[in-house]
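Can't attach files on this board, so I'm pasting raw text. These are the components:
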Amino acid sequence: MPLTADVAAQQVQERLRSLHRLIYDIEAERSRNEQCIDAILRAEKSTGSPSSADDSSGSSQQVSQLKSLYKSGLTAAEQEERLLRAALSRIYEIRAIKNERRIQARHAGNKETIGCGALMKLLLSAAQTLPLHVGRAGERAPPLCGAVPADAGHVARPGDAVAALVRVSDNEDNWILAEVVSWLPAQGKYEVDDIDEEQKNRHVLSKRRVVPLPLMRADPRTDEHALFPKGAVVMALYPQTTCFYRAVVNRLPASAADPYEVLFEDSSYADGYSPPERVAQRYVIAIKEGKGRAT
Amino acid sequence: MSQATDEIADIAMTSTEPDSSQNHTHEATSSLSADDASSSNAGTPAGSEGQASRQSNLQRIQQRKQQVFNWPHNKKLLKLAIYSACQTPDCNCNGWKTPVTQHAGKTPRADNQPLASFNDVCRNCNHVLEKHVSQLQGLPVAEVNRLLGAVVDVENIFMSMQREDDHNTKQVYYYLFKILRKCILTRSQPRIEGPLGQPPFERPSIAKAITNFVLYKFNSLPQREWQTMYDLAKMFLHCFNHWNFETPSVRKLQVSNPEDISAYQINYTRWLVFCHVPAFCDSLPHYDTSLVFGRTLLRAVFKSVCRQLMDKCHLERDRMPPEKRVLVLTHFPRFLALLEEEIFSPNSPIWDPDYKQVPPNHLQAMLDNKTSSRRVGEFERVTASGDSKDGFTTVTLSSGSIKQEGVKRAGVSVSGTGGKRRRVCSEGSDDVSQRTVADIVATISDPNYMCGPDALFQTQAPRDEAAKIEEQRKLIEFHVIGNSLTGPVNKQTMLWLIGLHNVFSHQLPEMTKEYISQLVFDPKHKTLALIKEGRPIGGICFRTFHSQGFSEIVFCAVTSNEQVKGYGTHLMNHLKDYHIRNNILHFLTFADEFAIGYFKKQGFSKDIKLPRAMYQGYIKDYEGATLMHCELNPRIVYTQFTSVIRMQKEIVKKLIDMRQKEVRKIYPGLTCFKEGVRSLPPECIPGAREAGWRAPPPPHDPDPDPVTLRNVLHAVKNHATAWPFLKPVDKAEVPDYYDHIKYPMDLRTMGERLKARYYVSKRLFIADMTRIFNNCRLYNSPDTDYYRCANTLEKYFQTKMKEVGLWDK
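---
Top answer:
Structure tokens for the assembled complex are below.
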């Protein structure tokens, strides 16, 4: 079914309304949780006080009371988590709708060419709104979250953003930002579109020339292992361009919303590296050794 | 004419007064005086000899008149008798003439010579002098004096006529002489009638156009500079009003076009009759040249006027006070050059009879309130950065309107650009009211206002939008900085220049670092710097050639990781506004292959509109680069341009919406076609008119005016290369001509066809004319004179047709 601008707007409106309700619910749930915690704290305090220690029956009563308080606190926290995840998923849905709308508009042929500046803004906002991986306790970051590579058998879906190694001249290859159009299983190749519509658009590339970009951000406070360490050599999207170049990680993101700070290899600077540039998690990927030696 | 000479001779004889206007001749008597220009900085009038002599002439004439007015009454009557008809019944004598004996001995004409008495007999009609003045006896003194004034003028005109060598001019004097004589005779007011027409002869007048010019070109200047331009305009008009035009016979030597000459002849005569002679003969109605003539005359004389004016300026410069010298020698040539452009431009707004320009803010402020220096509606201003003494090396640019609230700003920008629109409003036509516009502006400035469903996915913001927002939030700043070798340069400026040097050398790897240093640190070059977080991230290095009226853009770059954020566009817009404030309206640059796209987006073109002489030898030439030019429109505030246009678009959209709501109505639909009607005029369809449908104007190809065609044909016939085509080719002379040319045509035949009203459409006329040329080129080879004549005349013909608006291309 074609996702027209009107339909898309309507769907987004629905999600926004739902999100609106969820935010109120979250607030209500949060205050309930606070009350729970207060009650627990009060109960713990009275249990711990020596004056009531001799009253064993009262003590056991207190313990069971505490237990039930813990239990309800746990449920409340789980409920809040559920609501938060629901709200997040609404946001991701909106994001997906907008992305879908964009792809459809593009394929519908009415190529209202996006200006260069608008494209850059689009890329930045796409990176900022990349879903954040919020793992459950003990869960490791899944593939394509932050620096975690894709599984061996992973096949990128149409619309996924990838870095693609394309031939730009007789003996020069460039890693460009592209979007998957389709996977051709018979040939084991991807059909990808250059994200920059002004360039030659369609490329058919073997799987090894296509690296999927992260689908989720990793939170440095919980999943530091899912980030590139300082000093790692990576491929990073040069700011305000649609090309990936070799760079060295200079500083890790301080929070989930922060970008990396990287130094690009650049021989026009005396020490061979550019001044620090900020690149979002979405646009920093592991280097494929032996390939993409871009300067 | 013989009778006239006789008459004149008589007057010359009887004129007993010494001529007091010996010197009011046709020599140039213009001056560069701006003393009547109520100017603040124009100096004293230049002591030009022409001026002095003219002044003294006029004074002498006035003195002479006063003298005559003070005569005893009888003496006045004796004088008037010479110009008055004899009242004896049936006598036709129209002026008393001295008896022959009285001047037998060639009496010297002197004031003290005794006049005739009332009893002296007229040589002409033999009646006594008294009979010639009886009708004047009861006239009031004022009327008698008026007649005497006319007598003085008659005598002056007579003297001028005697001295005049130019035949045409002489005739005009004679014509005026007769008019004045008749008006004394009939004691009436002089009236000039006939084919010359009455002033004003063309609208808008030259004075109006020059005022328009000042408003149009210099509106954006600061008050003091604007005042200078205003003074120059007054000076020019003053000179023009006192200009002595060259006679058509002199002009004929320079201009070959017969029509131009005849047009000039008419205007010259008008000028003599209405402007020049009345200046010293005040019994004739006087008009200022600049008020009664328009574009035609100014175009005809402008170049020679300018040349002579400038020559005169240079001659007199040593006698001028220094500030006047600057005005005349520095500003005046540029003023004249700009004026020339507008005068000869086919579509300059200064000749729009309805031209209305909002006067400059400072002028308006001056008019509104002399003490108020606050400028309303100011978009941009330059403030010297206050904290250091480097005001002359660093100029901070700020957007004056940014601090205002959105709605207010919107209002200002609408009215600021809507000079034309406002005119329509004031004329009370069916345009929307200011109030409606204000309401709409309030609506669309509301942050909650949505532009439709795709607002969610809006990506098509103007290129400089983001940069403008950053500037508003003070995240980025723009400064014009430059090095100085003579004054102190503060550390900040120096650091920024070094930073800019780094940006340029990184972004322009094909330029050597040394070359970049050489220009960035050159005091003649300035750089508009884009500062973010205290550091330059981009800039445009330029050099202004004030004398040539343009700036050369030398380097233009934004550091790579800040590109495609609209900074380049915003930088260029700031540079444009900065130049408009400094009254430089042209940019030139040599763009390399990667820069051409950028410059095109910024309004540059490879089509160089500036004359080569203006920049050759000034601008640095780069091999392999493309010269590009951009002309600025001083009426646009470039940093506000996109938002103003957007606002206008939104307003129009809203107005259409409103109109649609008003007229929305469902009509049942037409049934007449079912009933067999084949067609009906659109205005009969219900609702069509209400929805704004108007009958299209009748097709614009009326029958050509035979007079126009005759004029064109006449001009073509009189052209120097028309001789081979004047009459049909003679078979006796060219026996084989008609073997080759099956459809001959010539100018005489065309004249006959024109008379016979054959040319009912311009197409037929053009076809015949073209046939003449084609026949010629068919029969003759390209190296013949005939062939060349055909080419030349064809071009001339096309020009003529274009002039009268009958040529389509």
